[in-house]
Design goal:
Number of helices: 11
Distance between the termini: 45 Å
Order of helices and strands: EEHEEEHEHEEHHHHHHHH
Structural class: alpha+beta
Number of strands: 8
Largest sheet: 4 strands, mixed
Strand content: 5-15%
Number of domains: 2
CATH architecture of the largest domain: Up-down Bundle
Shape: globular
Radius of gyration: 23 Å
């Protein structure tokens, strides 16, 4: 997936003898999961504006009625953004903001920022007291395993950045981009779960053939949200005093971050494979059979160095609990599949 902002200008090209065409921005096409041969739908506004979106999947339903948020005014920072994010996560395609008092520049920018932070959402109408946002993605094209694997790659990139910070003693320049990507994928994951809970045929198409599995997926998404929060905050803290990290602190982190990274990768892969043998293997942890949280606690303490580095180590320890939870859930999912037997060795 790509989340870049496309160039707003496109040159009109000649296509055939009497037709003209405009190319689609590659980042948008990738974000919409569009492929050659896919259908798109055009909608024309009264002012001549043309809106483009992927055609709904066969048998899919289109919710045309907008979710309306109406208030005399929005004066508190963050309220509008959270309402928009909440409506998106709950599965609404059209979101309309209405106010009695005109939205000031700060609130208008807050709406635009909220749209930029959600995959497939654009502001399609903007008036002093009314703003309409529209989601253009087809939910059937975003499978739950695909999105979880995407989150895994983002989390691994967070750990890569931390390792670079402690090795080079230089600030990371990717933290903001990674946090933005994580928020987009996580919001889409939650949205997919809400939509799947109301449409069993969609649930099957995106990787949850048994409706009871949706609860498992929600636990997975919650753990991924926690990991993204811990990793983002840990990277921010290491950035604060990247040039002041002591040799002992930097060495300890540099040694253990790859171990944490490998553990995370193995656990998420086992979670998606649903193999009982593999799930049992990753559940046992490292060579000594220790869980990741215990490994982090033993190797990243006693805490020394700057306060920010100590707190970063604490966050990594807390993140180990989330990874260990995913390892437990990998066994639950494999057992629920019920297609193999594993003989466990006695202690």
């Amino acid at each position: 997936m790509a989340w870049g902002t496309p160039n707003r200008e496109r040159r009109v090209l000649k296509a055939g003898h009497s037709s003209i065409a405009v190319t689609l921005p590659k980042p948008w096409a990738e974000a919409m999961n569009l492929r050659p041969g896919d259908l798109v739908v055009f909608d024309q506004n009264d002012d001549g504006a043309l809106y483009l979106k992927p055609a709904p999947a066969p048998g899919g339903t289109v919710n045309a009625a907008p979710y309306i948020v109406q208030a005399p005014s929005f004066d508190t920072d963050g309220v509008l953004e959270r309402l928009i994010v909440g409506a998106y996560r709950a599965g609404h395609d059209a979101i309309e903001i209405r106010t009695d008092a005109p939205l000031g520049p700060e609130r208008a920018e807050e709406v635009a920022e909220a749209a930029r932070g959600l995959l497939g959402v654009s502001v399609v109408a903007q008036e002093p007291t009314r703003v309409v946002l529209q989601n253009f993605i087809d939910p059937s094209k975003y499978g739950l395993p695909q999105l979880v694997q995407r989150m895994k790659m983002i989390l691994l990139a967070f750990l890569d950045e931390m390792e670079e910070v402690v090795r080079r003693r230089a600030r990371s320049r990717r933290r903001g981009t990674l946090e933005e990507e994580a928020k987009k994928v996580l919001s889409l994951l939650v949205r997919q779960l809400f939509l799947a809970s109301r449409d069993w045929s969609l649930a099957r198409r995106i990787g949850s053939p048994d409706p009871r599995q949706l609860l498992e997926w929600r636990v997975v998404v919650h753990a991924l949200e926690e990991l993204a929060s811990y990793y983002g905050e840990a990277l921010a803290l290491l950035n604060e005093e990247s040039d002041k990290l002591g040799s002992e602190t930097a060495a300890a982190l540099a040694e253990r971050l790859p171990e944490i990274q490998n553990r995370l990768k193995d656990v998420v892969d086992a979670l998606m494979q649903r193999s009982l043998e593999r799930a049992c293997e990753v559940y046992q942890g490292g060579p000594n059979g220790e869980r990741l949280a215990l490994v982090a606690r033993r190797n990243l303490t006693p805490a020394r160095g700057p306060p920010s580095a100590r707190l970063a180590r604490h966050l990594l320890e807390r993140s180990g609990l989330c990874v260990d939870l995913l390892a437990e859930l990998a066994i639950d999912r494999a057992v629920a599949a019920g297609n193999e037997t594993v003989l466990a060795e006695a202690a």
